[in-house]
Amino acid sequence: MEMKQVKDMVRALQLAKGDKVHPRGKAIFLVGAGCSKSAGIPLGSEIVDECVKDLAKTYSQGLSELENATTDEALAWLKENDYFLNDSKPDELYGYIFENHYPAPPQQQRIIFQAIQRCDGKINWAHLCLGELVKQGYIHTVLTTNFDQLVLEGIIRTGILPVVADGVRSLTRVSSEPLHPQVVHLHGSMHTYDPLNSASSLKETGSDIEVAAAIYTLLRDSDVLVVIGYAGGEEGVMSLLVDASRRLQNNMIYWVQYGKNTSELSKNATSLLNCGKNKFLISEQDADSFFAEVMGGLEIRAPSWMKHPINALQMSAEKIKYSNNNKHIHGLIARYHKRLLGYREAENTENKKEKALGVIHELSLGKQHKDVLLQMQQEFDNSEDSEVWRKCADSAYELGRQDADPAWLEISIAAYQQTLTYMVKMPTEYWEGFYPFFGAEIQNKLGDALLVLGERGGNENLFKQALDAHTKALEVFSRVKTPKEWAKTQNKLGIALYSLGRQKNDKSLLDQSQEAFEEALKEFTHEKSPVDWAKTQNNLGNLYRKFGKLEESVSLFEKALEIFSPEVTPDDWAKTQGDLGITRLRLGQQRKDSMELKKAMIACENALKVYDNKKMRVSWAKTQSGLGNVLLTLGEFEQDITSLQQAETVLELALGVRTVEHMDVDNKKTLALLERTKNALNKFRIQTGASEHRA
């Protein structure tokens, strides 16, 4: 099993796009209940919760103590009274309940139908994008364990009517190289008379020889299988996939996981991902955001029918056959075409700014930040729409974080300030009660931009402004009502206090910074929020280094690295590796310990495995500078000309990222290190009579 990112899977889809031989594409998607969650359809575990509570009430004949019982209390009662086997495991309850308590198809249909009805017929972004990927010729078959019709609806909205197969055995009638897109409801749909819910039905699926052969053929003839929103807890479908993958050792599978850690994967999913090569895991993905990133990576961004609604209606209208025998039918169809022409004229005369706003939304979704700012400059310079200014600010901030030119961050700060200004002017009802929280979020983003710009120039005033912005956000966010946002803001406040305290060398501000980080850790626990917990450990590590507690600092960074990984959280992992390198450098300098310096070198080199000198220029240059400092110190300690020459090369590379007009604090430090390196080299050459040429 290998960890990957969404961009890696996008490349696989690009290669799987349809051609003349395979017009429908060469990718298969397996979609589970997690994809329907944001549409309001409950997960299998939530259906189990409802069933457990209903069964307890029914079997107890309305026992008052079970009236408002939790799932755990209801389950305990059922087990104590021999309605459930005592060894029933949580991940087995779904099949067990339908096998032993709701075995009749009408009962199962009723439960599933009621669950699906809770979404009020809404469709979510994930399924709209899935439909567009089918239309664009990337996906030829969608397998789904869901009973809802969202996959089908997402495809139909594009103007395509796919082949629909109900039940896993229908796989035997499905083509592995179809001329038309296929949707297979593996466990049946909400309209199936005999839904496959029971434990025995699910197990029977995995032992059907014809079905196993069909799954094998599908995987064999496809370039990639993408699994999204599926836990893989049940045996039937998963055993078929595992068996096929054991025979097809090199078939490509991307498993997209909602959770953060591999420990959260089911046993079946782990088995599948350990079957040979080309088995990849993508973590921390909710379905809507995942599909948004995929669409952006493929430069589609939004469904075509949503971008050009009249075109979609026009294509549909052209398929309607005029009646030659009935003038009234002919007239109705002709009137429909005429009305569409009227809508086309209205679309063509649509407010230019409204069109541009739609483009900005699409560009933002695709993370095309420079194009967002270009649209903003062309169409919205005098806009009073706070949402437009926020998108401008977000894009400028993303560009500014990794570009040496401070102009991006200056644009971002001004745009966030405009966002706050125009928010106040909007009618209160426009925000539907969310105004204060949205305003606090913008204050936090403003604080982030001020902080990054302040770090570049060592600007005390910008640190103070950042501190003020995060303090204002904390006036809105509270631990009781918005615990996660409160903890994140405490973390940001701690960073601002640290930066200002370091700049002023003010111990009291640094102490306040520690207090803010410790407040954040009250919510960001290792168990509940491991990534946020690790980020806070990293922040404390930097603070402890400033306090001179170098060993404690190293320990905190190492704790963070137990959570971060280059595959799942590459930016955080690289930053912590860089920070660890600086701390080990200080330890090595303090102790005159070459081994510690070599550990510092390894940490810096690890960070550089992630940082790109084109897309992440600032972080790359800063880490190169740190590596150069390590090599310089090692060369001085060991009187090693090779280390000094390597330091010179590395520091010159770091300086090459910024131009003279964009000299900042880090660049000046790098320049000073380079001068020190050159002096050390000259001194060494004079003492040894060594050649000036580099080894």
The amount of helix comes to 55-70%
Instruction: Report the average pLDDT across residues.
Output: 86
Q: Write out the strand line-up for the largest beta sheet, numbering strands in chain order.
A: 1-8-7-6-2-3-5-4
Radius of gyration, whole Å: 30 Å
How many DSSP-defined strands? Answer: 8
- CATH class value of one domain: Alpha Beta
Q: Which overall shape is indicated by the principal axes computed on the Cα atoms?
A: globular
Residue stretches low in confidence (pLDDT < 50, at least 5 long) are none
Would you mind describing this structure in some detail?
- Among the domains are: 2-41 and 123-297, TPP-binding domain (Rossmann fold), CATH 3.40.50; 44-117, no CATH class; 308-349; 611-695.
- It has 30 helices and 8 strands.
- With 695 residues, it is mainly α.
- It has helices at residues 6-16, 44-59, 71-80, 93-100, 105-117, 125-135, 150-156, 199-206, 209-220, 235-247, 267-273, 287-297, 304-307, 309-317, 327-348, 352-365, 369-379, 386-401, 407-425, 435-457, 460-474, 483-504, 507-520, 530-547, 550-561, 570-591, 594-608, 617-638, 641-655, 665-688, and strands at 2-3, 27-31, 139-144, 163-166, 182-185, 224-228, 252-256, 279-282.
- The longest helix has 24 residues, at 665-688.
- An 8-stranded parallel beta sheet has the order 1-8-7-6-2-3-5-4, sandwiched between helices.
- The protein is globular.
- The two termini are 41 Å apart.
- Strand 6 (224-228), helix 10 (235-247) and strand 7 (252-256) form a beta-alpha-beta unit.
- Helix 9 (209-220) packs across helix 10 (235-247), helix 21 runs antiparallel to helix 22 (483-504) and helix 26 packs antiparallel against helix 27 (594-608).
